[in-house]
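note to self: the first set is below, dont mix up w the second
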Amino acid sequence: MNQPDQLARVFEANRSHLRAVAYRMLGSASEADDAVQEAWLRLSRSDAESIRNIEGWLTTVVGRVCLDMLRSRKARREEALEDEVTEPVVAQDPSTNPEEEAQLADSVGLALLVVLDTLAPAERVAFVLHDVFDVSFEEIASIVGRTPAAARQLASRARRRVRGEETVRGEETASASDLNTQRTVIDAFLAALRAGDFEGLLAVLDPDVVVRLGPGAGAPGAPREIRGAENWAKGAVAFSHLARFVQPALINGSVGLVFAGPGGRLSRALMFKISNGKIVEAEIIADPARLQQLDLAVLGEPLP
C-alpha cells in the first residue's frame, strides 16, 4: 500500500463516496471537492500500511475537515450579522459550475440542504454520517469530540429538526389535512412558475392577492407591495429560470418555498396564506437576520 500509484488507485475508488459525504455536509460542490482533496493530502502523508479500513479512515477524515469548514462558515456568518449586513449576498464562486450544483442539489434534495444548513455544525455532521451513511456513533464521537451517547443525541436532535418534529417558535403547526391542501396549491404554483405558465399562475392566485417584499427582496427601489394576480404573475414569469433552485419546505409550520443560493444556503423564503384553494397573501423574505429566525423542515410525503 506504500506505493504512490497503488495508494492513488485506492483513493480514486473511494472518491465518489467521499464527495457524496462532503457534499451533504457542506452543500457546495466546490467545497466538497476541497474537503476530498484535503483527505487525499492527509492520506498521502500518513502511514497507509497501518490503516485497516481505508474507506472508514477517509470518511472520518472528510468528516473532520467538513466540521472545521462548517464551524468556520458559522463564525463568518455571525460576524456578518454583527456588522448588520441586511442585503443577502448571492455571489457565485467562479470555480462553481451552476449546472452541476443544480444537478447535485436535485439528487440530494434542495430543501434538505437548506434545512441542514440551519443545524449546528456538529449536529449536521452527526446526522449526515449516521442517518445517510450509517456511520457508527463511536466513529462519529471521535470526529465531533463527544461521547458516543452525546453523538447519538446530536443526530437525534438534528433528525427532529429536519423532520419538523420540534415545537415551532411562536407558531401553530397546521394539521395534516391543512398541510396537504397547502402543498397542493404550492406545488401547482411552483409547477406553473417553472414552466413560465402565466395562466397556470393565475389559476392558483386569488385575483386580489397581496404580495409583500421584505428588505433585500426585489430590485432596489422596487415597490414593497404588489397587488393583484396579474401583476404578480407577470413579474414571477420573468424569474422562471431561477425556479429550479426553489423547493417546497415547511416554514414555521406551514408549506412555503425556499430559494437556495450557493452552497445550499437559504437566500429567499416565500410564505403564503391560502384560502379556498387560492393564494391570497404572500411574503418574500430575504433579510439574513429574518431568515435565520425561521423554523424550517423537510416536507414528508403527502397523505393519500
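second set (the one i keep forgetting abt)
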Amino acid sequence: MKPSDFSHQLADLDAQTLLRTRRVVASPCDAEIMIDGHRLVNFCSNDYLGLANDPALIAAAQEGARRYGVGAGASHLVCGHAAPHEALERRLAAFVGAERALLFSTGYMANLGVVTALLGPDDAIFSDVLNHASLIDAARLSRATIHRYSHLDLVELEAQLSQSAAPRKLVVSDAVFSMDGDIAPLDRLLALCEGHDALLLADDAHGFGVMGRQGRGTPAHFGLNSPRLIHMGTLGKAAGVSGAFVAGSAGLIEWLLQKARTYIYTTASPPLLAHALLTSINLIEAGDDRRARLTARIAQFHRQLKLRRWRLAESCTPIQPLIVGDNQEALAVAQALMERGLWVVAIRPPTVPSGTARLRITLSAAHSAAHVDLLTAALMELEAR
C-alpha cells in the first residue's frame, strides 16, 4: 500500500456519498446544543433520560474528582480498582438482579472481552445479522464458528442451534437494535438457549435505564433471571456518564475478571466517573417521571408525523429511524433540518444495509413538546418537496 492510496480511497468514499464528517459541539450534551455558533435542537444523542448535563451528576463528578483525583493510575488488577468501582459493581448487580457485575471502559470493550473469554476455535456463536459492530468484531476475534441468522428469525436460529455439535454455544443479540429501534424477544431467545445448552449475551446498550421496571433494562422488561443470561449494559447513554458493565452469575463474572483481555490489560476508568454513576443509578431507579416524559415524546412524534414517501420504522423505543433510502437524499434532508435549527444525523451504508439510508432520530426526556412540534413540521415540509 502506498501513502497516496488513502487519497484515492477517500475520494471513492466521497463519490459514493459515504464520507463521514465530524461536528464540534461547544456546549454540554442537552436537548439544545451549540455547533459552529448556532443553537440546534439535538435529535441524535443517546442521552435518553436527559442525565448527561444533570446538576446532581455534575456535583457527584466534582466530588469524585476531589476525593479520588482524575485518573485511576493502573488497571483494575494492579492498583486501579478504587472504592467507587467496587461500590458501583455491587450496586449494578443488585439493580439488575444479578449475582455480580464487572465494569468495562466501554460497551465495545465489554463485548470483545466477554465473547473472546468464553469462546475458542472449537465453539460456535450465533449472531443476529443486524447486531452492533462490537458483537460482530467480537465473534471474529473469538475464532469460533460464526452462524448468522436473519434479523429476529428464531426459526432459523433454532435450526442452526439444533445442527451445531460445538461444545460451547453462545447466542448474541442487541436487546434494542441501535439502527432500527426494535426489541429482541429475549424471553424466546433465552428459551432456545435453555433448550440447546447455550448462553445468551444481550447487548442492552440502548435498553438499560429506559426499558423494564425502574429502568433495570430489557431483561427486566421480559422478567428474565437465568444463569444462562449475560447482561451487558452501557453507562454513557441513558445513564449519562461513561463506561459499561457485564452482569451475570458469580462464576461467569469471576471468569471474565480472570480472562477478559479488554478488562485485564487496560487502565481502569477514572474513579470519579464511578462515583458519579452511583448517583446516576439512583436517578434511573427513581426516574419514572423521566421515562414517562420520554414515552410521551415518542407517542407525540408518531401521532404528528404523517408521511407519504419515507417510512418510519416500527419502534416504541427512543430510537426512531426514518427510512429515506437514497444516500444523497438522506444527507440533503439532514442538512436542510440543520438549516432549520434541528440536528438529525443521516446514517448510510455500511452502517445500515444498502438502499436503507435513514435519519436516525433519537428522542430524550429532555425534549419538550415544542421541540417535537418543530421536528415533525420540518420533516413533513421537506418530504413534500
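remember for set 2: The longest helix spans residues 288-304.
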